[in-house]
Amino acid sequence: MTTATPRRRGLARFVPAVAAVLGLSLVLTACGGGDDEGGSGDGGGDLSVTFLPKNLGNPYFDASSTGGKAAVEEFGGTFKEVGPSESTPDSQVSYINTLTQQGVGAIAISANDPEAIGDALQEARDAGTKVVTFDSDTNPEYRDLFVSQADAQGIATKQVELIAKAIGDEGKIAILSASANATNQNEWIKLMEEDLAANHPNIELVETVYGDDDDQTSFDKTAALLQKHSDLKGIISPTTVGIAAAARYLSDSQYKGKVALTGLGTPDQMREYVKDGTVGSFALWSPEDLGYLTAFAAKALIDGDIKGDEGDTFEAGKLGEYTVGADNTVILGDPLEFNKDNIDDFNF
Amino acid sequence: MTSLIHPSDTSTQQRARTYRDHQRPLWQRVLFSRDVAVWAALVVVYLYASATVPFFDRPITITYLLLDVAPILLIALPMTLVIITGEIDLSVASTVALASVSFGVLYDKGAPIVLAAVAALLVGVVCGAFNGFLVTVVGLPSLAVTIGTLALYRGIAVGLLGTTAITDFPDGWTDWARGRIGESDIPSIMIPFAVLAIAFIILLHFTAFGRGVYAIGLSEGAARFSGIRVERTKLILFVLAGAVSALAGIYYTLRYGSARGDNANGMELQVIAAVLLGGVSIFGGRGALPGVIAGVLLIGAIGSALRLADQTADVINIVTGLLLVVSVVGSSVLGWISSKRRRRGAPEPQHDSTGSGTTGSGQTEPGNTLTDTDGPVGERERDDR
């Protein structure tokens, strides 16, 4: 009775082998057609630009890739987007390696870690691929160019301008920030304080509180602010988590429409509060334009029009001409203002 | 499953005791093993991808592949032994992170890098020993214990460094971690891996300790009664898992030049998936290291091929997930079917000759039908795993 078993057990043991081959061949066949067209990337100078966001399935990066794709199609290159499912420090490395092997023209990457992906990017550049970082930079030695969403001064001035408009340029305001040691936010707050002192003498900044970029903490801090300062006229929240939590608190409270709120937010988060009148206007750079500019910067690098040095200039389609600034950085420009008139035009 | 060695199902008269598997000649046992199947799958996937995926056939693919899977390869070695005893260690990736952070913080505070590395290894040993203590001395299930320490070690790692990273490691060390052996395409990390792999293969497959590991997995009670020091064995294995995870953590830190609390997030599942794909039974008692090494490489090769074919991370996850499910479910379903057939066929020996006429040694022995009253039960249960 045991005679039949060796063969059957042999069969059972080969299940993984069969499964592996079948599964892989199915997937590869399914995508086979696309490969042949796309696999052109051996020589230098080809206009294939691959976007590698922090992670896929993130509306912000979906928007930047949309802009990048539009730009690449405009100048007749090949667009591709790849990326990890989680934004862990090392998760982009294997994708960078893959792109190095494929010899793409340029990688446009938003870095999950300024150092961890550096070595892989260096290898890509050694192989002739141009590297442009956008949104989130690596250490400068690992990339040719960084496309920054906005400069700190522009962001600070815009928010002060919006709150001044909302409260009639006088009264008490407060700031609801991210964490107490958040580099970006602290820089903006410092610039806003300077701007207020110099140009808006009737506005008094009474307190800065920190919601740690946590929804519930930000919500509670908003409540505490309003109880403590009964004559508060407005709140600036220069972080997307903070402004959404503050808007949620205000929209259900007696302060709705009485206390102004502005800051940096995304249209999808804020749409509801803009429409019900809790928030008049807020600001953010356009991730689509960021992707668009990044793609054109990549093209200029591939074509050899620029090297990424300070003072280089290049054309960026509908956005016009840009000049590379200090630290090989290109700045997108002033943030966009969103209000009830234009918010439905944006989807991120 | 209650015994590693079966009372004979062939012939008690002729041979007093025998492994059922040993009824077949050696070449068959080797050729039809799960290990060989996984290696075969690896070779087929590699050849197929080389033929169909652009750029896959370049030598650099192997370099990147080995660099990517190196930490998983390292941790899979002790993990195999842990799972063969019927336990599991989910805290390995968190140990990687804690060792990485300890290494980075100590170095940053001015300790010599060798001292920092040794301290990080000690941290791994302590992590493993703590797991082992809770499992063997306190007697808690390893699944619950290591889910707890998964969160605990990760929490300490993130707490120590917050969201900052330490990136300032000496170039000599990071270059080595990213480097290759001489002019070849094989990364340098494969040297320590090869040494460890040989050590673990000897430990598991050629020592009394290793036989004890299998015995514990098959039946802890029987192992205890036959004089195996179950608790000591398990404790040693958890400590080994912690130590090797810490080694992987140091390598990880140097390779990416970055010590962060969220390093190697989720790696425990990649390790366990590879170990199971390599033919180790999650119930313990079965599996071998060569198959596990092939399992790790197979998952890595599939990921690499799919990335080169411009598939997204989701597709890669789906394919490796399906592969794992199919291989685990498939082999137990086939095992179940064959045990059904065997049970049905048991009373009449001639029925079996229709299945496969030529193999096996004890084809028509009269002792067969006489002694198999308990034999098939043991067989069936072993197969069902």
From TrEMBL, chain A:
The keyword DNA damage does not apply. It is found in: Cell envelope. GO terms for biological process: rhamnose transmembrane transport. Keywords: Signal. Residues 50-304 form the Periplasmic binding protein domain. One of its GO terms (cellular component) is outer membrane-bounded periplasmic space. PROSITE patterns: PROKAR_LIPOPROTEIN. One of its GO terms (molecular function) is carbohydrate binding. It holds the Pfam family Peripla_BP_4. The keyword Nucleus does not apply. InterPro entries: Bact_Solute-Bind_Prot2, Peripla_BP_I, RhaS, SBP_2_dom. Residues 1-30 form the signal peptide. NCBIfam families: RhaS. This is Rhamnose ABC transporter substrate-binding protein. It comes from Mumia zhuanghuii.
UniProtKB/TrEMBL annotation, chain B:
It is found in: Cell membrane. The keyword Transport applies. One of its GO terms (cellular component) is plasma membrane. GO terms for molecular function: transmembrane transporter activity. Residues 363-372 have a biased composition (Polar residues). The keyword Membrane applies. The chain crosses the membrane at residues 36-56, 62-83, 113-139, 151-169, 189-214, 235-254, 266-284, 291-309, 315-337. It is a multi-pass membrane protein. Keywords: Cell inner membrane, Cell membrane, Membrane, Transmembrane, Transmembrane helix, Transport. This is Autoinducer 2 import system permease protein LsrD.
